[in-house]
Design goal:
Blueprint (H helix, E strand, L loop, with lengths): L4 H9 L4 E5 L2 E4 H17 L7 E5 L4 H12 L3 E4 L6 H11 L3 E4 L4 H10 L5 E4 L10 E2 H7 L13 E7 L7 E6 H12 L9 E4 L6 H13 L2 E4 L5 H11 L3 E4 L1 H9 L14 E5 L5 H10 L4 E7 L6 E5 L6 E2 L2 E2 L8 E2 L4 E5 L12 E6 L6 E2 L3 H7 E2 L2 E10 L5 E6 L3 E4 L2 E4 H9 L4 E11 L3 E10 L7 H9 L10 E4 L13 H5 L12
Parallel strand pairs: 1-11, 3-4, 3-5, 5-6, 6-7, 10-11, 10-12, 12-13, 13-14, 28-29
Antiparallel strand pairs: 1-2, 8-9, 9-21, 14-15, 15-18, 16-17, 19-20, 20-23, 22-23, 23-24, 25-26, 27-28
Length: about 525
């Protein structure tokens, strides 16, 4: 089974139903499939062979949806670029994956011109914006108009569907290889939870390069839902789209939820009567924020999806029926990440891989058809996390007697800020390159706005002085802004274990006083 089967089924059963809405654009499934098949033909004419990678660097749009399906229809492999990355980070992902074709919109034309000069592998750039195409770039609509529709390549099963780059603990992003079966197994598990019912209207408000959006959207493709797209999240755009497009379902990261319910527009008269489900995921959410959101959106069902890119991406779901308040306070289950979806098996194990007793903290491991094929060109890191058929997540949690997972900490030193993963070792390498820094440690500290923010604890070299702002500026020259420390403090020495390992739990302790949790 392949991902494009969802399109073929939809055009067979509901050809005239609206499939996509973007601004004033409305397209039926029949029109969408015709455009997808023509774009696939254009990609093949540009030299795309089976298994070749095609990137996109773009804000959300209807053309982003067409890219996702057309690349697979043509037999290619997706490589969606993180729009928040620096040019150097995007360059690495293109060169590492040997990406030969890239789509780019108006926002990133200048970056694409730079990447063209730096990446020898990048042979063709398709302009998918809404102005005149720059010279030396192919015009998106022109390609569709000039090329005939081609038959679906019918790739599926274990065939590679996408390489999704995520922050790397070695200072470079890791390419997570996901097959058609991986993505479909996650989507089918999500669909079985009732999250994507027939007739839904799903709003793409989260960035479409993020697998959190694609993972939930895949369930809606299977259900034949209508897909509504806004270029980027703003509270006003979301509220307007709900009212105008009669949106019933959406996925928001917790930061977006907070911005939405605190927006002045929420205090004005706005028609949210169509909204039925709000999913959240990609980063932890505080109980206080969740309670406020439930109060601000009465009658709307909330659900949580927990997972990671390597799991395509969903492992567990906390259903709406478990989002309950007891005497005005969150019920016990609302504190959890839910239970495994139907296609997935989850265990909590000790350092030897043995399952621990219920209520005992250990590492979350996952087995199922959603588990990634591995890391692109990185067998050593693949072997480190895929052992005996189980994906070792690096998340520390316990399971209660009812099978609910409660995440309490991370074995990996990963920070999740505003829905984006930040690996502390990557930031530490950049900070450590400053001539005044002797040693440093980067941790996540609580933030009401972002869930967590990046904080650096620095030991300076003897006789050196430097302002925190200069260290932050140094980081911004080398890595994406969201990865850079928001705050810096100085100390004479870092706490270390008997083996000489920096004790980040000690550094985090003053900032996390919730009693047992060191994540948001």
């Amino acid at each position: 089974m392949g991902i494009t089967q969802a399109l073929r089924r939809a055009v067979q059963q509901r050809p005239d139903q609206v499939a996509v809405r973007f601004g004033d654009t409305r397209r039926s499934f029949k029109e969408l499939v015709e455009r997808v098949a023509r774009l696939a033909g254009a990609l093949q004419a540009l030299g795309l062979n089976a298994g070749d990678r095609v990137a996109i660097l773009s804000l959300n749009s209807d053309r982003y949806l067409e890219y996702q399906m057309a690349v697979l229809w043509a037999g290619g492999v997706l490589n969606p670029c993180n729009t928040r990355w620096s040019t150097a980070e995007i360059q690495f992902s293109l060169e590492d994956s040997d990406t030969r074709i890239m789509l780019v919109d108006d926002t990133f034309v200048a970056a694409a011109e730079v990447l063209r000069t730096r990446c020898a592998c990048l042979h063709e750039i398709i302009y998918c914006g809404h102005r005149a195409a720059p010279s030396a770039m192919h015009d998106y609509e022109g390609l569709i108009a000039r090329h005939e529709a081609v038959a679906d390549a019918l790739r599926g099963g274990d065939d590679l569907a996408g390489i999704f780059y995520t922050g790397g603990t070695t200072g470079f992003p890791k390419g997570v290889m996901l097959s058609h079966d991986n993505l479909l197994a996650s989507a089918l598990g999500v669909a079985s939870e009732g999250i994507a019912p027939e007739g839904a209207i799903y709003l793409h408000a989260a960035p479409m390069f993020h697998l959190a959006d694609l993972g939930i959207a895949m369930a809606h493709w299977l259900a034949g839902s209508c897909h509504v797209v806004i270029p980027a999240f703003t509270p006003e755009a979301v509220l307007q789209s709900i009212a105008t497009d009669r949106v019933s379902h959406t996925l928001l990261v917790p930061t977006m939820i907070q911005m939405l319910i605190d927006a002045p527009a929420m205090k004005q008269a706005c028609d949210l009567s169509s909204l039925q489900f709000v999913g959240y995921g990609a980063s932890p959410i505080s109980e206080a924020l969740l309670v406020r959101a439930m109060a601000a959106l009465p009658g709307v069902d909330f659900f949580q999806a927990y997972g990671m890119t390597e799991l395509a991406p969903v492992a567990t779901v906390l259903q709406a029926r478990h989002h309950v308040l007891v005497r005005g306070r969150p019920g016990n289950k609302i504190r959890s990440a839910g239970r495994p979806i139907n296609t997935v098996e989850v265990r909590v194990v000790d350092e030897h891989g043995n399952e621990v007793r219920r209520g005992t903290v250990g590492e979350v491991i996952v087995r199922g058809p959603n588990v990634m094929l591995g890391y692109w060109k990185n067998p050593a890191q693949t072997a480190a996390v895929l052992r005996d058929g189980w994906m070792h997540t690096g998340d520390c949690a316990y399971m209660d007697e009812d099978g609910f997972i409660f995440v309490v900490d991370r074995l990996k030193d990963m920070i999740i800020t505003g829905g984006e993963n930040v690996y502390s070792s990557e930031v530490e390498q950049v900070l450590g390159s400053h001539p005044a820094v002797a040693v440093c440690a980067v941790i996540g500290i609580p933030s009401p706005e972002w869930g967590e923010t990046v904080h650096a604890v620095v030991v300076l070299k003897v006789g050196q002085q430097v302002a925190p702002e200069l260290l932050i500026h140094h980081c911004k020259r080398h890595i994406a802004g969201y990865k850079c420390p928001r705050s810096v403090c100085f100390t004479d020495a870092l706490p270390v274990s008997g083996a000489g390992k920096i004790l980040k739990s000690v550094l985090r302790e003053p900032y996390w006083n919730s009693g047992g949790r060191q994540v948001a």
